[in-house]
Write a structure and sequence with these properties.
The complex is a heterodimer of chains A (about 900) and B (about 400). Chain A has about 900 residues and is mainly beta. Among the domains of chain A are: about 20-105, Carboxypeptidase-like, regulatory domain (Immunoglobulin-like); about 120-235, TonB-dependent receptor, plug domain (Ferric Hydroxamate Uptake Protein, Chain A, domain 1, Beta Complex); about 310-575, no CATH class. In chain A, about 5% of the residues lie in helices and about 55% in strands. Chain A has seven helices and 54 strands. Chain A has a 22-stranded antiparallel beta barrel. In chain A, strands 1, 2, 5, 8 and 9 form a five-stranded mixed β-sheet that branches. In chain A, strands 10-15-16-13-14 form a five-stranded mixed β-sheet. In chain A, strand 39 and strand 40 (about 725-735) form a beta hairpin. Chain B has a 16-stranded parallel barrel with strand order 3-5-8-12-16-18-20-22-24-23-21-19-17-15-9-6. In chain B, strands 10-11 form a two-stranded antiparallel ribbon. Chain B is mainly β. Chain B has one domain: Pectate Lyase C-like (3 Solenoid), CATH 2.160.20. Classes of the chains: A mainly beta (about 900), B mainly beta (about 400). At the A-B interface, helix 5, strand 20, strand 21, strand 22 and strand 31 of A face helix 1, strand 3, strand 10, strand 13 and strand 14 of B.
Amino acid sequence: MKHFFTLILFLSAVIAQAQNGTITGSLSDKEAAGQPLPFANILIKGTSKGTTSDFDGNYIINNVEPGTYTIEFSFVGYQSVEKTNIVVTAGNTTVVNQEMSAGALLDEVIVKTTVRKETEAALLLDQKKATTIKQSIGAQELARKGVSDAAAAVTKISGISKQEGGGGNVYVRGLGDRYLNTTYNGLSLPANNIEKKNMDLNLFSSDVIQNVGVSKTYAANFYGDFAAGNVDIVAKEYTGDFFLDVDLGTSINTNAVGSNFVKSEGTGFFGFYNRYQNDPYAVILSHGVDAIDANATTGLLGSISGGKSWDVGEESRLSVFATASFGNNYEFREGPAVDYTTVEKKRFPNSEEYEYSRNTTAMANIVYRINGDHKIKFNSLFINDATDQASYFGTKGLGINRDAILNTDKGFYQSNIQFEQDMIFVNQITGTNSINEKLKLDWGLGYNKVFARQPDRKRISVERYDLELDGDPNTNATFFSNIAFDNQRYFQNIEDDELNARINFNYEQSEDLSFNFGYNGRTKKRVFDNIRYGYDFIQPNTEVGDVRDLNGVFAPENIGTVFNTVVFNALDPANGLGNNNLPGRTENTYEGNLMVHGVFGEAVYQLNEKLSLVPGLRVELFDQDITYDVINLPPTDPGFREASEVFFLPSLNVKYALTEDQALRFSFSSTVSNPEFKEVAPFVYEDVTQRIGGNPDLLSDPAFSRIYNLDVKYEWFMERGEIFSIGAFAKAINDPVNLVVANDATGTQRFFRTGDRADVLGFELEARKGLLVDAEDENILSAGLNATYTYTTQDLKSSQGIFSTTFDRDSDQLQGASPLLLNADLSYSPTFGEYKPVANLVFSYFSDRIDALGSGQLGNIIEKGVPTIDFVWKNTINEHFEINASVKNLLNPTIERVREIDGGDIALSSYKRGLNLGLQLKYKF
Amino acid sequence: MKANKFLLAIFAAATLFVGCSDDDTADITINQNGGDNGNPVDPTDLTIGGTLSEDLVLAAGTEYTLTSALIVPDGFTLTVNPGAVIKATTGADVYVAVLQGGKIMAEGTSSNPIVFTSNSATPNAGDWGGLIILGKAPINSVTGGNATSTSEIGGLPYGGSAVNDNSGILRYVRIEYSGGAADASSENNGFSFYGVGNGTTIDFIQAFEGKDDGVEFFGGTVNASHISVVGAQDDSVDWTEGFTGTLTDVYIEHRQSHDKGIEGDGFNTDIGNNSSPIFWSSPSINNLTINGNGSTNENEAIRLRAGTRALFNNVLLSGFAEGFDLDDEDGENFTGEGVTNGDTGVTDISFEDVIVTLKNDTGATFDETTFFTGVGNGTGADYASWSGGWTRN
């Protein structure tokens, strides 16, 4: 709490500064029932002093010498107004409010201000007006802070952190992926990865984002599957006349540069793989197992975006915005990799991982504004996310495998070379219609398609690698072949189809009372399959040679002499087409179907000037089924599970305006959490050091978690986008789901309802303050800070079912919850004529958190806390040209996961990511 | 018009992206001549598989084809008469499992043993699963009572508190070419005994040319006699999860591909020793012979680790680089404690062609004279006296 008081004192000190007088006030729009009038000009006649009104219609002119003035208010399409005899005295504030009305001469011009929700001011206004607790970050702030994607964007919001090196996993208030939802223009957005419920936000480059908002409290129009928050990405749209931007950049990673960077064979420069149409067996016969030289370590990025609008007829306008970008990135990590349960099963003191990622994004947005009342929008998004990963474990011959055959003390070596390609297609039609003065309609229809594929992963296991390194040609490493699949090729395909729709009617009964009612629903289908070929060596202890040059060993001519290929499900055993040296059938398949239909209603009731209430109710029909044919299940298992539920989900959001700028908010809701396909499908994914599988019992005992959410928040919106807020939240999650090791002989982690209840209690603080202003009253130095402290606890119990697990303790913290999250930034933006540099220092930190809960006697796996500092320097040279530079991960902290054991921690992985240096040139036509 | 050109450029770029990776994958043509094709499954054969809904009796001297997992559920009995041969089609998911409460009554004779084998014309280790018996006897991976764990293969429940649980009788039973792996961590053995109680009779069993372990005990209290394991490619005899039975007359012979002769764990290291009050694997092994491939090969006869206790009596080890290797994790002394407590040790042992007789990597300090008594007195299992007629070599 000490820091908190220091902060308040500091803020108070900055606020107090007054010698001359101040004129302030607000402007209202007579044409819009007294709504605030933003963007109007306010000028003190006879001086150079003036300003424009903000989004709230408020204005302030500081530092006015005492005297009597005339003030002129003007706005396009409105009658200008002059107010005379305004007296300003030293140290005092003179308030001048003004209502403005449309000018008679211009009544043919219809001016409607559409708020462009990409500026920070507009989004703060949105946050201020919102009836739920919501925070957003817009394109302007993204650009200012040098944020390149949505994942980095949301971490600038309080209570949010990202998993380092974990592929865009976002935590909101300590709750991870399964408690979040991501939407795109208010419609469902698919996940790109089988392990995730949410899209990797790294894939949304800031070029396609208008703003990203996080709603931390529930409203009836959200899907009932809600716990920590809803992330909504709004696609960028452009309504101006014309623009075209081109940028080119380059980046280097200090770890990757100078390394002998390798990637998997057969993947294209842009991250496409062209062998999907071939049978996997044909692929392994035609192509080897070795990685190839990447021939580069310098990342490239380029993008082009443009927009144009056409007036159509008297009142319609067609706007097109499109963007395409490509970027690649090289990262190299080295450090130990360990599999430790209650004993050390594998230890690789030295491992090397080369990760080469490519990201292509294309987005087009066509907006047709029929007139002031009707608008229709088509949005199409394509993302190709591709990652090559070449990993070598036990590179110095010091690897240990407890179950090795020839030497359990050293010489164990494995390599894993894989490629993942995720292609995501999102197509949406959305629209808004004002039926009449009172009734407004907002609707959308979306269709999503995802192909997430992992073609031809190659895994090789070797023993006695130390003998290869000892320089003695008479002693050699040998292939480790305890089972045929110790050396294997693996292929996995996932295809998702999702159709979803939303419609909302807003009916304004009176100025004080309006209603929202509507429907949203989705149906989603996932189809999964995989196949695996093992290399079964005919002679035990077959010698290896160079472990990075194995194509000769696995050449097709060696089939039947050096090795046999083995597939789990033979093609046609009844007719003699067996498991060896032939193509096979898929090994595991599953199909999941999800159907959610919800109707909702809410009232927005302005009880008096200060108090507004938003009670809401959602009734949701939920149906999920999964059909699976997975290896190694009890033969008595039906291979099918289904759950159907009807949820009644009440919510109440209350806002009490203490003053015009300060408000108290209160929110209560009851929501649910439903299992994901990957959590219920019993298929087991085998990583080099861990195994993860689903548990179909999640759909039967019970099929969902009931969640109660409570939030209170105080917020104070100051001038120039300054804000101070403090809040508290509590959640009770019944029958929570955790990923823990199941009680069997394989060490597989599965999902279980591990207790009756989990509780979350937390406090949040957010402050944003201008520190220095220039002559035009613009901030040139500003700072922001947000912090969240979360306390979590859950009870633990053993569970029995198709799988079972047990615990040696009664309670623990919630998985994924960091007690402390901190985000801070400092921005310096002076102006020198046309040259406008902006320098930003952005800091974030999360404290240690449980990455995987330990069952049985196993300790928890802890993701150690990581501080990060990024420096971004943007230079707008003139109206056409920009040069931007960045240094990311300045602190280069050690990223570490450990297993807690009695008397200390065992590091499971530990590495540094290196600094990323980037340079970008941008040209605006 | 600028914007239109630019849209066209995006389209062109997108086309370029897709066209950028190579595909020089050749087609496969399968020419299947004779060989396996000459031996298709005849549907009129005696085919078995699936979950029993009534007791099943396999007739004496009859050959059956096992085409899928044969499950004997609670309350049912699988009876196998002498000389019956069960030939399994290939696949790790082709196995025989006797669930908790189910029984197998397989009583062969020394001249008419019961054989489970591969139906391939050219059989190989790992062709099919194996025999799995699941009982209700104690295991130390769970907290006790009726809590169960699930088996490596098939995900079937086992364990409980019935020390003298009875899963039936195995007598003169041979299993060949078993041990198919479902994945890197789930492997069939020849005989897998999961929490099998000492009401069960096991006498005269052989695991021949299996891909994984020959005989594995996952907890349980069952006693077994006259065990022969020949050519197991992983450990020949393996125990874990608090196995406390007695093994009498055990013969192990390594072939070209093998791991340890015996690998004993005190508990399942993936989940810990969750028993309360705590207990470890602590079998007794009487009359044991392990024949290795010679001390010039890097191999070891017996590995004891993860806190297991074990009392050996009358042991003959020949042809190993290492005889006994005892392990503990750094900073722990679970296995070593067994030796210093007197729960682990060897009485009467002989070494032939063994370089290192004892490798002590535990947390405890003890010497060979503490661990071995009666060195030179071991005579082993006297295999010749009981192997005739029913075993394979």
